[in-house]
Amino acid sequence: FAQVFPEHKYLIVECLREMGYIVGMTGDGVNDAPALKRADVGIAVAGCTDAARAAADIVLTEEGLSTIIHGIFIAREIFSRMSNFITYRIAATLQLLFFFFLAVFIFHPADYEHPEDEEWPEYFHMPVLMLMLITLLNDGTLITIAYDYAEARKTPNSWNLPALFVVSSVLGFVSCASSLLLLQLLLDSWSEGSFFSKLGMKGVMYGQVTT
Questions:
Q1: Mean pLDDT in the chain?
Q2: Contact 183, 103 (CB under 8 A)
Q3: Gap between the Cα atoms of 113 and 105, Å rounded
Q4: pTM of the full structure
Protein backbone atom coordinates (compact mmCIF):
# COMPACT_ATOMS: atom_id res chain seq x y z
CA PHE A 1 0.00 0.00 0.00
CA ALA A 2 1.24 3.47 -0.88
CA GLN A 3 -0.13 7.00 -0.69
CA VAL A 4 -2.99 6.01 1.60
CA PHE A 5 -5.03 8.30 3.79
CA PRO A 6 -5.02 7.97 7.60
CA GLU A 7 -8.43 6.25 7.57
CA HIS A 8 -7.09 3.75 5.06
CA LYS A 9 -4.27 2.81 7.44
CA TYR A 10 -6.82 2.18 10.14
CA LEU A 11 -8.97 0.05 7.81
CA ILE A 12 -5.95 -1.98 6.66
CA VAL A 13 -5.03 -2.79 10.25
CA GLU A 14 -8.66 -3.62 11.09
CA CYS A 15 -9.05 -5.93 8.07
CA LEU A 16 -5.87 -7.82 8.90
CA ARG A 17 -6.98 -8.26 12.52
CA GLU A 18 -10.38 -9.58 11.39
CA MET A 19 -8.55 -12.12 9.21
CA GLY A 20 -6.84 -13.47 12.32
CA TYR A 21 -3.41 -11.90 11.93
CA ILE A 22 -1.37 -10.38 14.73
CA VAL A 23 -0.79 -6.90 13.37
CA GLY A 24 2.17 -4.64 14.08
CA MET A 25 2.14 -1.03 12.96
CA THR A 26 4.92 1.56 12.84
CA GLY A 27 4.40 5.28 12.51
CA ASP A 28 5.67 8.67 13.51
CA GLY A 29 2.96 11.21 12.77
CA VAL A 30 -0.42 12.32 14.03
CA ASN A 31 -2.14 10.61 11.10
CA ASP A 32 -0.68 7.26 12.22
CA ALA A 33 -2.12 7.47 15.75
CA PRO A 34 -5.49 5.73 15.06
CA ALA A 35 -3.81 2.79 13.32
CA LEU A 36 -1.14 2.56 16.03
CA LYS A 37 -3.86 2.44 18.67
CA ARG A 38 -5.85 -0.23 16.83
CA ALA A 39 -2.91 -2.52 16.01
CA ASP A 40 -1.99 -5.37 18.34
CA VAL A 41 1.49 -3.86 18.64
CA GLY A 42 1.83 -0.18 17.86
CA ILE A 43 5.43 0.98 17.46
CA ALA A 44 6.34 4.64 17.36
CA VAL A 45 9.71 5.29 15.76
CA ALA A 46 12.35 7.67 17.12
CA GLY A 47 11.49 11.34 16.69
CA CYS A 48 7.75 10.72 16.50
CA THR A 49 5.07 13.18 17.52
CA ASP A 50 3.48 13.20 20.97
CA ALA A 51 0.22 11.83 19.54
CA ALA A 52 1.97 8.82 17.99
CA ARG A 53 3.94 8.25 21.19
CA ALA A 54 0.76 8.26 23.28
CA ALA A 55 -1.07 5.85 20.95
CA ALA A 56 1.80 3.37 20.56
CA ASP A 57 2.61 0.40 22.77
CA ILE A 58 6.35 0.67 22.13
CA VAL A 59 8.42 3.79 21.53
CA LEU A 60 11.81 3.36 19.85
CA THR A 61 14.63 5.55 21.12
CA GLU A 62 17.11 4.77 18.32
CA GLU A 63 16.90 5.59 14.65
CA GLY A 64 15.98 2.84 12.22
CA LEU A 65 13.85 -0.29 12.39
CA SER A 66 16.62 -2.77 13.21
CA THR A 67 15.74 -2.37 16.89
CA ILE A 68 12.43 -4.10 16.20
CA ILE A 69 14.16 -7.12 14.67
CA HIS A 70 16.58 -7.28 17.60
CA GLY A 71 13.68 -7.12 20.05
CA ILE A 72 11.85 -9.93 18.26
CA PHE A 73 14.87 -12.23 18.50
CA ILE A 74 15.32 -11.44 22.20
CA ALA A 75 11.63 -12.14 22.83
CA ARG A 76 11.88 -15.52 21.08
CA GLU A 77 14.92 -16.42 23.17
CA ILE A 78 12.97 -15.51 26.31
CA PHE A 79 10.09 -17.68 25.11
CA SER A 80 12.49 -20.60 24.64
CA ARG A 81 13.81 -20.18 28.19
CA MET A 82 10.26 -20.00 29.56
CA SER A 83 9.40 -23.23 27.77
CA ASN A 84 12.51 -24.92 29.19
CA PHE A 85 11.66 -23.65 32.67
CA ILE A 86 8.12 -25.03 32.56
CA THR A 87 9.32 -28.37 31.17
CA TYR A 88 11.92 -28.76 33.92
CA ARG A 89 9.55 -27.55 36.64
CA ILE A 90 6.82 -30.05 35.75
CA ALA A 91 9.28 -32.94 35.25
CA ALA A 92 11.10 -32.28 38.53
CA THR A 93 7.86 -31.92 40.49
CA LEU A 94 6.45 -35.18 39.12
CA GLN A 95 9.70 -36.99 39.79
CA LEU A 96 9.96 -35.91 43.43
CA LEU A 97 6.27 -36.38 44.14
CA PHE A 98 5.95 -39.90 42.74
CA PHE A 99 9.38 -41.00 43.95
CA PHE A 100 8.72 -40.27 47.62
CA PHE A 101 5.14 -41.53 47.38
CA LEU A 102 6.07 -44.84 45.74
CA ALA A 103 9.23 -45.34 47.81
CA VAL A 104 7.26 -45.27 51.06
CA PHE A 105 4.75 -47.91 49.94
CA ILE A 106 6.96 -50.16 47.82
CA PHE A 107 10.24 -50.41 49.70
CA HIS A 108 10.57 -51.91 53.16
CA PRO A 109 14.24 -51.60 54.18
CA ALA A 110 13.85 -54.05 57.08
CA ASP A 111 13.07 -56.85 54.59
CA TYR A 112 16.44 -56.44 52.85
CA GLU A 113 19.66 -57.99 54.04
CA HIS A 114 21.56 -55.48 56.14
CA PRO A 115 24.30 -55.41 58.80
CA GLU A 116 23.30 -56.95 62.11
CA ASP A 117 24.70 -54.01 64.08
CA GLU A 118 22.38 -51.55 62.29
CA GLU A 119 18.61 -51.54 62.49
CA TRP A 120 16.84 -50.59 59.30
CA PRO A 121 13.31 -49.10 59.53
CA GLU A 122 10.18 -50.87 58.39
CA TYR A 123 9.28 -48.15 55.90
CA PHE A 124 11.56 -46.02 53.78
CA HIS A 125 11.79 -42.46 54.99
CA MET A 126 14.21 -39.56 54.79
CA PRO A 127 15.09 -36.88 57.34
CA VAL A 128 13.17 -33.64 57.01
CA LEU A 129 16.44 -31.78 56.60
CA MET A 130 17.30 -33.88 53.55
CA LEU A 131 13.89 -33.20 52.01
CA MET A 132 14.40 -29.47 52.48
CA LEU A 133 17.90 -29.70 51.03
CA ILE A 134 16.66 -31.59 47.97
CA THR A 135 13.94 -28.97 47.42
CA LEU A 136 16.38 -26.08 47.73
CA LEU A 137 18.92 -27.66 45.38
CA ASN A 138 16.16 -28.48 42.91
CA ASP A 139 14.96 -24.88 42.91
CA GLY A 140 18.54 -23.64 42.70
CA THR A 141 19.05 -25.40 39.38
CA LEU A 142 16.17 -23.38 37.93
CA ILE A 143 18.25 -20.22 38.25
CA THR A 144 20.65 -21.47 35.60
CA ILE A 145 17.84 -21.63 33.02
CA ALA A 146 17.75 -17.81 32.97
CA TYR A 147 21.34 -17.85 31.68
CA ASP A 148 20.97 -20.92 29.49
CA TYR A 149 21.82 -20.70 25.81
CA ALA A 150 18.65 -20.22 23.79
CA GLU A 151 18.37 -20.03 20.03
CA ALA A 152 15.63 -17.89 18.54
CA ARG A 153 13.35 -19.63 16.07
CA LYS A 154 12.95 -18.26 12.58
CA THR A 155 9.16 -18.50 12.85
CA PRO A 156 6.89 -17.00 15.53
CA ASN A 157 6.55 -19.02 18.72
CA SER A 158 3.26 -20.33 20.04
CA TRP A 159 2.31 -22.37 23.08
CA ASN A 160 1.55 -26.05 22.60
CA LEU A 161 0.56 -26.94 26.15
CA PRO A 162 -0.54 -30.56 25.50
CA ALA A 163 2.81 -31.40 23.89
CA LEU A 164 4.67 -29.53 26.63
CA PHE A 165 2.87 -31.47 29.35
CA VAL A 166 3.43 -34.81 27.60
CA VAL A 167 7.17 -34.18 27.20
CA SER A 168 7.48 -33.01 30.81
CA SER A 169 5.53 -36.01 32.09
CA VAL A 170 7.67 -38.48 30.15
CA LEU A 171 10.87 -36.88 31.45
CA GLY A 172 9.48 -36.86 35.00
CA PHE A 173 8.44 -40.51 34.98
CA VAL A 174 11.73 -41.61 33.41
CA SER A 175 13.61 -39.74 36.15
CA CYS A 176 11.33 -41.26 38.78
CA ALA A 177 11.89 -44.77 37.43
CA SER A 178 15.67 -44.30 37.43
CA SER A 179 15.56 -43.00 41.02
CA LEU A 180 13.48 -45.98 42.15
CA LEU A 181 15.87 -48.36 40.38
CA LEU A 182 18.85 -46.74 42.08
CA LEU A 183 17.13 -46.99 45.47
CA GLN A 184 16.44 -50.68 44.86
CA LEU A 185 20.10 -51.32 44.03
CA LEU A 186 21.25 -49.47 47.15
CA LEU A 187 18.89 -51.27 49.52
CA ASP A 188 19.82 -54.62 47.99
CA SER A 189 23.55 -53.93 48.13
CA TRP A 190 24.13 -56.36 51.06
CA SER A 191 22.57 -59.36 49.30
CA GLU A 192 24.67 -62.02 47.65
CA GLY A 193 24.70 -61.63 43.91
CA SER A 194 23.65 -58.00 44.12
CA PHE A 195 24.84 -55.42 41.63
CA PHE A 196 27.29 -53.99 44.15
CA SER A 197 28.75 -57.38 45.04
CA LYS A 198 29.30 -58.17 41.37
CA LEU A 199 31.32 -54.98 41.11
CA GLY A 200 33.35 -55.95 44.15
CA MET A 201 31.91 -53.18 46.30
CA LYS A 202 30.69 -53.50 49.86
CA GLY A 203 27.14 -52.80 50.94
CA VAL A 204 25.77 -49.34 51.60
CA MET A 205 24.64 -48.28 55.06
CA TYR A 206 21.08 -46.97 55.44
CA GLY A 207 22.34 -43.54 56.43
CA GLN A 208 24.26 -43.37 53.18
CA VAL A 209 21.15 -44.37 51.24
CA THR A 210 19.09 -41.50 52.66
CA THR A 211 21.84 -38.95 52.08
A1: 84
A2: yes
A3: 18
A4: 0.73
